[in-house]
Design brief:
Layout (H helix, E strand, L loop, with lengths): L2 H23 L12 H10 L21 H13 L3 H13 L6 H13 L3 H15 L5 H13 L3 H14 L6 H13 L3 H10 L9 H13 L3 H13 L6 H14 L2 H13 L6 H13 L3 H13 L6 H13 L3 H13 L6 H13 L3 H13 L6 H13 L3 H13 L6 H13 L3 H13 L6 H13 L3 H13 L6 H13 L3 H11 L10 H13 L3 H13 L6 H13 L8 H13 L3 H13 L6 H11 L2 H15 L1
Helix pairs in contact: 3-4, 3-5, 5-6, 5-7, 6-7, 7-8, 7-9, 8-9, 9-10, 9-11, 10-11, 11-12, 11-13, 12-13, 13-14, 13-15, 14-15, 15-16, 15-17, 16-17, 17-18, 17-19, 18-19, 19-20, 19-21, 21-22, 21-23, 22-23, 23-24, 23-25, 25-26, 25-27, 27-28, 27-29, 28-29, 29-30, 29-31, 32-33, 33-34
Length: about 650
């Protein structure tokens, strides 16, 4: 055996015996507080050889550091980068036994490793042991590193607790990064007022807010719908000498677009150019999304062309947003053309884009084109998911092709895609549409056997279909089952049941359900359809005063009557009263009551009904409504709408 190899083996055996002795006496001691059994330790040592002494002798002595200190630090960095906590344990134990100097930089590497391994509490434990166990005093760098680990793990309350504990007990002064992290945690928890308070206290702590501080706070304010406060911070930061970045503008533009305030968003884009910030992909995508939400598809497409000309690359989300907007407006062919243009530019349609187009083509009555697109999608390697299969099932159901819909549903299950509530709802609705209510009920029972999670949407569709078919006994069975499963009926389910009961002559039962609705959550509150069902039923029973009381309650609860409401009362006044009335006085009074409540749109709709029925409003009523509608801003909005409708 060569001499070098002999020495290396001797050193390894000697260090192994020392290490085994150390771990035998301190079996439960670990830098990670992890219990390691003797068998586990021996197995690990057979796989991973111990750290040889000779590698520490290669480093020179520097200042207060001992020979080999730099090698220990390199090992810590290496093991931390690979999250090898067992090896880190060995290095820390040996450094302690040799009374080596621990430096903060090594702990920073370990904190990052704990973050990478999603072990935030281990990072906190290590921080607490830095001074007492390793004689390394933590600074604000360690505090920030641990705070970042906790926040990235989504433990925002824990982050604030840790920060408060360290500031009060560890004599560490925060810096601007500390404040940024605390503000971020507060904003994520919705504690925006506290975040603003922390922001205002930063100068007292001699921490000048930077661009990240402002961006974080602006984002928090926007998410709480406090847009004006967020925008005011833009002026404030520039006065304080902090120049905004593209990210700053993007945060505000996103907030304004979500609010629908596109005019202010456009002004901010102009401001971006003035401040030397060039709009990037995020800016364009945000604006395009905002335009699509407002239905301004032409402007969105124009902005897309401008985006490309400015060498900003649109992504799948950009194209998908516009295509979905076009489909919603019934312009599915334009959406398909944009998909072709998208592919010509090197992009590929994703499942979201194809599901929107397939669904839109079926709704437009173009089933052959929808199937052709489906085949093209498969040929291009886009594997269908639950959303895509559901769109196809819904399309077949809309066209009355229930057999094909069931075949597609069987195929999606065989391909590992689980049908969702939309899939089942489409199938149930399709069976009712073709007069196969019994089959719809069978589908629901199959879902029950297969333990499919019922929800309010499926039950609403089923109840609506059964009530339309006058099968009140089955509808009541589904209703009771729905309540027993903890599903809260929505407005559609309630309205369907009330309609069924009223048609069955059980108006009092319908009114009981209506009163129950009034005590429910927002999505279960009665809407104009619910009121119309009950008003119509009461008028048929000659309970006109009760119907008028219900109308008054409708107005008081902020629900405006529509054309159907007006027609019900006009018919009742003409057929049920002696002598008959044309309803002019009634509708005129209704317009004034809406006007006094400042519900001008509702009032103008009633005036429109009156004009269609040749029932002219009284001069006083006409004057009030016209004055309100002819305010300069409303005239401008009306003219703009006319131009949009024309072009």
């Amino acid at each position: 055996m060569p001499l070098g190899a002999s020495i290396k083996k001797h050193l390894s055996v000697q260090f192994y015996s020392i290490t085994c002795k150390f771990f035998t006496n301190h079996r439960y001691f670990s830098i990670l507080n992890t219990e390691i059994s003797q068998n586990e330790y021996e197995n690990q040592e057979r796989i991973e050889p111990p750290i040889p002494d000779e590698i520490f002798r290669s480093a020179p002595k520097l200042g207060s550091y001992k020979l080999g200190d730099s090698t220990f630090y390199s090992l810590i960095e290496s093991y931390a980068s690979s999250c090898d906590f067992r090896s880190l344990e060995k290095v820390f134990d040996r450094m302690k036994s040799e009374r080596r100097v621990f430096i903060e930089k090594s702990f920073i590497h370990v904190f990052k490793a704990y973050g990478k391994a999603h072990l935030p509490e281990k990072a906190v434990e290590m921080f607490d042991r830095m001074l007492g166990e390793f004689q390394c005093r933590p600074t604000v760098r360690s505090l920030n590193s641990v705070l970042n680990v906790i926040i990235n793990a989504g433990l925002f309350h824990r982050a604030l607790e840790f920060h408060s504990y360290v500031i009060c007990n560890k004599n560490i002064l925060p810096n601007v990064l500390t404040c940024n992290l605390v503000i971020k945690a507060m904003c994520r928890l919705g504690l925006v007022d506290k975040a603003v308070e922390t922001f205002r206290d930063m100068p007292v702590q001699k921490c000048a807010p930077d661009v990240f501080t402002y961006c974080t706070l602006m984002d928090g304010l926007c998410k709480e719908n406090r847009i004006n406060e967020a925008v005011s911070l833009l002026d404030e930061m520039q006065i304080e000498g902090c120049f905004p970045s593209s990210v700053t503008f993007n945060v505000l533009i996103n907030g304004l677009c979500k609010r629908g305030d596109l005019a202010r968003a456009a002004k901010l884009v102009e401001n971006m150019f003035l401040k030397g910030c060039v709009p990037n992909e995020v800016t364009y995508n945000t604006l395009i999304h905002g335009l699509c939400l407002k239905g301004k598809l032409e402007k969105a497409i124009s902005l897309l062309d401008r985006m490309v000309s400015n060498k900003c690359v649109p992504n799948d989300v950009t194209y998908g947003t516009i295509i979905n907007g076009l489909v919603k407006q019934g312009r599915v062919i334009d959406g398909a053309r944009l998909l072709i243009a998208m592919e010509e530019r090197g992009h590929h349609g994703n499942k979201y884009v194809y599901s929107s187009l397939v669904s839109g083509l079926f709704k437009d009555g173009k089933s052959e084109e929808a199937l052709r697109m489906w085949k093209e999608m498969i040929e291009k390697g886009c594997k269908p998911n639950t959303v895509l299969y559901s769109a196809l099932v819904d399309g077949f159901c809309r066209n009355g092709k229930l057999d094909q819909a069931k075949e597609i549903m069987s195929e999606m299950v065989s391909m590992g895609c689980t049908p969702n509530a939309f899939t089942y709802s489409s199938l149930i609705r399709g069976f009712f549409k073709t007069g196969n209510g019994d089959k719809a009920l069978m589908i629901w029972k199959e879902m029950e056997i297969n333990d499919f999670m019922h929800n309010a949407v499926i039950c609403s569709v089923l109840i609506h279909g059964l009530c339309e078919d006058r099968k009140m006994e089955e509808a009541m069975m589904v209703w009771k089952h729905m309540l027993a499963k903890g599903c809260i009926p929505d407005a559609v389910a309630y309205s369907s049941m009330i309609h069924g009961l009223c048609n069955d002559g059980s108006v009092e039962q319908g009114l009981k359900l209506f009163n129950e609705m009034l005590c429910r959550e927002a999505n279960s509150q009665p809407d104009v359809v619910t009121y119309n069902i009950l008003i119509n039923a009461l008028c048929k029973q000659n309970s006109i005063s009760h119907a008028v009381d219900l109308l008054n309650g409708m107005l008081d609860r902020g629900c405006d009557p529509d054309v159907v409401t007006c027609n019900i009362f006009l018919k009742t006044l003409k057929e049920k009263l002696n002598p008959p009335q044309d309803g002019r006085e009634f509708l005129d009074e209704l317009v004034l009551r809406l006007y006094k409540r400042r519900r001008i749109i509702g009032a103008s709709r009633i005036v429109e009904v009156m004009l269609q029925k040749f029932l002219a409003p009284k001069p006083y009523t006409w004057e009030r409504v016209i004055q309100e509608l002819c305010k300069p801003r409303k005239i401008r909005a009306a003219i703009d709408k006319c131009w949009r409708d024309l072009f």
